[in-house]
């Protein structure tokens, strides 16, 4: 029996072969995963990683896919997606919460509100899971993960051991950090500030409303395509000023409401989105002398 067959046999219920990934990205695009592994729990994840060391299939971690464009030919190796057993919330004390890595940010914000913990309102308007939010140092309206993280637990795929990493050990920057790409985050601890439930709810609603006004909703997008520039200028401003906001490539278009949001209008391919990205990058570089840097992650073949 080949290694791959052994792997399938051993992790039968949780490992599938040749799985369409378009449902796993907010663009609703992307070819198949050679293998998709949804671990039952942490012990099984570690067991799988140890077993895979013999086989050494390439590992790709996917969160909620709200910041990831998956290419049309899909992903070779194993895509690991943490499921419901990694989606949980536990109050540690009056302002700290321990959270499974697959938990959606919106759920965290609501749990915090219900427990009188403020300063996590910004998570109510970031789609995605907390694992992805830590990797991206996601944030909005003056707050981000680096300001509320206490520590995280992660399994290193090199030694298959779970370690705890404290906030002080991590260097965060705008939409990123220096964490090793070999880590699979399994849980995090976030810290908020005690506040009244009504006040927290009001702040959440204000933020959600602000987002509704400035950003499109109900569309196939991964949010901001490019990072804002260090020179205070927003990426959308530069895209507009250089006339790129009207660019399109097949069914890949740019949102009229927010021109840093690239959209699959229904029939686009991932390659159309990528072509549109490159077209905008080229024009912005030629006209404004600015090198736009991607905020979204592009993965696959
Ligand atoms: C409509 C819309 C609005 C948005 N608004 C904002 C905003 O205001 N602010 C903002 O910062 N972002 C925003 N985003 C982008 C996106 O929601 C965030 O980047 C989000 O935190 C990504 O989380 P995810 O779980 O979807 O990550 P994914 O897209 O699945 O993955 C992102 C990265 O994290 C890694 N990853 C995911 N989970 C784990 C894990 N457990 N362990 C290790 N690595 C992991 C992946 O490998 C990948 O590199 C928006 C997106 C959309 C669609």
Give your account of this protein's structure.
- 28% of the residues lie in helices and 29% in strands.
- By secondary structure, it is of the alpha+beta class.
- The chain has three domains: 82 residues, Uridine Diphospho-n-acetylenolpyruvylglucosamine Reductase, domain 2 (2-Layer Sandwich); 117 residues, Uridine Diphospho-n-acetylenolpyruvylglucosamine Reductase, domain 3; 84 residues, Alpha-Beta Complex (Uridine Diphospho-n-acetylenolpyruvylglucosamine Reductase, domain 1), CATH 3.90.78.10.
- Helix 3 runs antiparallel to helix 5.
- The protein starts with a helix and ends with a strand.
- The mean pLDDT is 95.
- The structure holds flavin-adenine dinucleotide.
- Flavin-adenine dinucleotide binds next to strand 3, helix 4, strand 9, strand 15 and strand 17.
Comma- or semicolon-separated keywords:
globular; Uridine Diphospho-n-acetylenolpyruvylglucosamine Reductase, domain 3; Uridine Diphospho-n-acetylenolpyruvylglucosamine Reductase, domain 2; alpha+beta; four-stranded mixed β-sheet; 29% strand; Uridine Diphospho-n-acetylenolpyruvylglucosamine Reductase, domain 1; 301 residues; binds flavin-adenine dinucleotide; 3 domains; five-stranded antiparallel β-sheet
Set out the fold topology.
Layout: H1 3-10, E1 15-20, E2 32-37, H2 42-55, E3 59-62, E4 68-70, E5 75-81, E6 89-93, E7 96-100, H3 105-114, E8 117-118, H4 130-136, E9 139-140, E10 143-144, E11 149-156, E12 161-166, E13 172-173, E14 176-177, E15 183-191, E16 193-194, H5 197-214, E17 220-224, H6 235-241, E18 248-249, E19 252-254, E20 261-264, H7 270-288, E21 297-299
Parallel strand pairs: 2-5, 3-5, 4-21
Antiparallel strand pairs: 1-2, 6-7, 7-15, 8-16, 9-10, 11-12, 11-15, 13-14, 17-20, 18-19, 19-20
Helix pairs in contact: 3-5
């Amino acid at each position: 029996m080949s290694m791959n067959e052994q792997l399938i046999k051993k992790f039968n219920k949780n490992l599938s072969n040749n799985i369409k990934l378009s449902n796993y990205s907010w663009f609703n695009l992307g070819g198949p995963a050679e293998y998709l592994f949804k671990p039952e729990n942490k012990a099984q994840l570690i067991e799988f990683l140890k077993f895979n060391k013999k086989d050494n299939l390439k590992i790709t971690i996917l969160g909620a896919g709200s910041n990831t464009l998956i290419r049309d030919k899909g992903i070779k190796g194993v895509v690991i997606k943490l499921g419901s057993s990694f989606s949980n919330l536990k109050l540690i004390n009056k302002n700290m919460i321990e959270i499974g890595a697959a938990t959606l940010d919106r759920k965290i914000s609501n749990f915090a509100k219900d427990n009188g913990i403020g300063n996590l309102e910004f998570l109510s308007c970031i789609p995605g899971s907390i694992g992805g939010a830590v990797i991206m140092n996601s944030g909005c309206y003056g707050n981000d993960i680096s300001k509320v993280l206490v520590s995280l637990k992660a399994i290193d795929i090199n030694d298959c051991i779970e370690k705890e990493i404290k906030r002080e050990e991590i260097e965060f920057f705008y939409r990123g950090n220096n964490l090793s790409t070999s880590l699979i985050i399994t849980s995090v601890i976030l810290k908020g500030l005690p506040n009244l439930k009504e006040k927290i709810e009001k702040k959440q609603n204000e933020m959600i409303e602000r987002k509704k006004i400035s950003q499109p909703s109900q569309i196939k997008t991964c949010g901001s395509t490019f990072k804002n520039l260090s020179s205070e200028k927003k990426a959308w401003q530069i895209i507009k000023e250089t006339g790129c906001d009207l660019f399109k490539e097949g069914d890949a278009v740019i949102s009229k409401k927010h021109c840093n949001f690239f959209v699959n209008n229904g029939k686009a391919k991932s390659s159309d989105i990528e072509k549109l990205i490159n077209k905008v990058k080229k024009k912005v570089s030629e006209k404004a002398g600015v090198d736009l840097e991607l905020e979204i992650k592009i993965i696959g073949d």
